[in-house]
Write a structure and sequence with these properties.
Helix content: over 70%
Keywords: DNA-binding, Transcription, Transcription regulation
Domain HTH gntR-type: 1-69
GO molecular function: DNA binding; DNA-binding transcription factor activity
Radius of gyration: 22 Å
CATH topology of the largest domain: Four Helix Bundle (Hemerythrin (Met), subunit A)
Protein name: FadR family transcriptional regulator
Strand order of the largest sheet: 1-2
Number of domains: 2
CATH architecture of the largest domain: Up-down Bundle
CATH class of the largest domain: Mainly Alpha
Shape: elongated
Order of helices and strands: HHHEEHHHHHHHH
Length: 230
């Protein structure tokens, strides 16, 4: 194991065991390095790496703290990694979304309040019939974001939000090339909303699956026709 990896593992272990709790301040660098049997240089590298993935927060002139470790914070690092994937992996992310998002939608059917559902409907109503592709994509992203947030599971919501990047371009591509994209997307969104309002998790799950699978299948066929996923 590389020295820096060992340092990361030891700091992580302190957090996992509760020795370092969310929001707590790390001991002085010299003291912590001595305690963990590490060089100060390897400790610095470990702290730098953990700060990049939002596990630690380095505050100049104050010290280093464990972050809140909230899922939304930690998943930000995943989003950073996801952004580096090439277009030919977009289908993989869409497949993950097709597996997870219907489950979140089913949970939302029981967890979202009437006020949240009314807000969701108003959000859809605001989309004009002649909306631009950009408006369509932004409405679509916000529609699904609200639903997964309404599932009541912040980890699931953060995970799905983190993979929105690769699928974002697929949505734009679909909107640019598929006829009547606004009409079809709006119809499918309304079907999902109707299931949510009816408090029918199974129907909501099925509607979300069909909606996402439609995008995935369209992109799969388009990728096959062009010979790649870009």
């Amino acid at each position: 194991m590389a020295v820096t990896d060992e340092a990361i593992t030891k700091i992580k272990q302190m957090i996992v065991t509760g020795e370092l709790r969310p929001g707590s301040k790390l001991p002085r660098e010299a003291d912590l390095a001595d305690r963990l049997g590490l060089s100060r240089n390897s400790l610095r590298e470990a702290v730098k790496a953990l700060s990049l993935i939002h596990v630690l927060d380095v505050r100049q002139g104050d010290g280093t703290y464990v972050t809140s470790l909230e899922p939304t914070l930690l998943m930000g690092a995943m989003e950073f990694v996801v952004d580096f994937h090439q277009d030919d992996t977009v289908l993989n992310f869409l497949e993950v979304r097709r597996i997870l998002e219907p489950a979140a939608t089913a949970k939302a059917a029981l967890a979202m309040t009437d006020e949240e559902l009314t807000g969701l409907e108003q959000h859809l109503d605001a989309l004009a019939a002649d909306a631009s592709v950009d408006d369509l994509v932004q409405t679509d992203l916000e529609f699904h974001r609200r639903i997964v947030a309404g599932s009541g599971n912040p980890v699931l919501a953060s995970l799905l939000d983190s993979i929105a990047g690769p699928t974002h371009r697929a949505r734009i591509w679909r909107g640019l090339t598929q006829q009547r994209a606004v009409e079809r997307t709006n119809r499918e969104h309304r079907q999902i909303l109707d299931a949510l309002r009816a408090r029918q998790p199974d129907v909501a799950h099925a509607a979300a699956t069909l909606h996402i699978a439609g995008v995935e299948e369209w992109l799969r066929q388009a990728a096959a026709a062009t010979g790649d996923g870009s």
